[in-house]
């Protein structure tokens, strides 16, 4: 026992200090894309042609990226001859509405993610129980959600916990494109959660269907089946991106303009 205690003391503090300190992101992390329309060369559409999920559209000559469809594969960045699209290191990607996932959108400096209203923050701000539903996911997003329960992130210190029964939950955290055989299960799980309740869509599949969008046996994301209160894009989203979205939803991080 003494050896165990000594080893633990030597290990020190292993839990991330986020949000008090900036997150430690890996060198290969791909965050919010930055678009510079002045670098677009005439009628070039190379970035859109390279995108595997049709996440890029054009507002006149300026490209726009739909983060809800984006796989963060950087094919568009590599294909663009002028460097108009570059994936930066901003992990703050969550949004309350589907329209707010379009970059740059009408206001590229809009708040990253508005918190719940005062009444819901009073209910869920200090204790939020979520039932995770894998609606046909590949286990990528599911794995990064599970990571939040480890000592490095310790989701429970914020009062957020995953529970086994929807009847014990305040909302659902959904991953996967909602395959045909999971649609009824998602509907029944949603119905079992007592009101008021939330739905959080995690990952490109849960938001838009991801690479499976348009397939006959998927339903192109969970907002075609249940109402969504928070969208967290990525393929899969980094655990810090998920944590950031949850904390902003609960008002634990103030949503200011993006840096």
Report on the architecture of this protein.
The protein is of the alpha/beta class and 259 residues long. It has 2 domains: 57 residues, 2-Layer Sandwich (Alpha-Beta Plaits); 132 residues, Rossmann fold (3-Layer(aba) Sandwich). Helices cover 25% and strands 15% of the residues. The chain is built from 8 helices and 10 strands. The mean pLDDT is 91.
Fold topology:
Layout: H1 2-11, E1 33-35, H2 46-50, E2 56-59, E3 62-66, H3 75-79, E4 85-87, E5 102-103, H4 118-124, E6 128-134, H5 140-147, E7 160-162, E8 171-175, H6 180-192, E9 198-202, H7 204-208, E10 230-232, H8 239-249
Parallel strand pairs: 6-7, 6-8, 8-9, 9-10
Antiparallel strand pairs: 1-4, 2-3, 3-5
State the CATH class of the largest domain.
Alpha Beta
Major beta-sheet overview: 5 strands, parallel
Provide the CATH topology of the largest domain. Rossmann fold
**Whole-number count of domains:** 2
Please state roughly what percent of the residues sit in beta strands, choosing from under 5%, 5-15%, 15-25%, 25-35%, 35-45% or over 45%: 15-25%
Q: Which sequence of SSEs, written as H and E, runs from N to C?
A: HEHEEHEEHEHEEHEHEH
What's the architecture of the largest domain in CATH terms?
Answer: 3-Layer(aba) Sandwich
What's the helix count?
8
Shape by Cα distribution: globular
First and last CA, distance: 48 Å
- Helix coverage percent of residues? 10-25%
Low-pLDDT regions: none
Spatial sequence of strands, sheet with the most strands = 7-6-8-9-10
Mean pLDDT level: 91
Radius of gyration, whole Å = 19 Å
Secondary structural class: alpha/beta
Topology, number of strands: 10
């Amino acid at each position: 026992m003494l050896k165990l205690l000594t080893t633990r003391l030597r290990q020190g503090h292993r839990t991330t200090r986020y949000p008090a300190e900036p997150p430690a992101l890996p060198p290969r992390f791909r965050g919010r894309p930055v678009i510079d329309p002045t670098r677009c060369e005439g009628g070039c559409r190379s970035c859109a042609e390279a995108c595997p999920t049709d996440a890029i559209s054009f507002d006149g000559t300026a490209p726009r990226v739909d983060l809800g469809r984006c796989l963060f594969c950087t094919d568009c960045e590599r294909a663009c001859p002028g460097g108009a699209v570059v994936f930066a290191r901003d992990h703050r990607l969550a949004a309350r509405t589907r329209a707010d996932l379009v970059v740059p959108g009408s206001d590229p400096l809009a708040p990253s993610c508005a918190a719940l209203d005062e009444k819901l923050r009073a209910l869920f701000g200090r204790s939020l129980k979520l039932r995770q539903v894998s609606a046909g996911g590949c286990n990528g997003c599911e794995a990064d959600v599970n990571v939040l329960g480890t000592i490095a992130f310790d989701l429970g210190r914020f009062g957020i916990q995953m529970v086994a029964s929807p009847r014990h939950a305040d909302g659902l955290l959904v991953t996967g494109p909602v395959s045909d055989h999971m649609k009824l299960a998602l509907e029944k799980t949603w119905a079992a959660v007592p009101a008021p309740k939330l739905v959080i869509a995690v990952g490109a599949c849960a938001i838009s269907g991801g690479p499976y969008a348009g397939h006959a046996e998927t339903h192109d994301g969970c907002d075609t089946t249940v109402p969504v209160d928070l969208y967290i894009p990525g393929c899969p989203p980094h655990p810090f991106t998920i944590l950031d979205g949850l904390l902003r939803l609960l008002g634990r991080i103030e949503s200011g303009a993006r840096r």
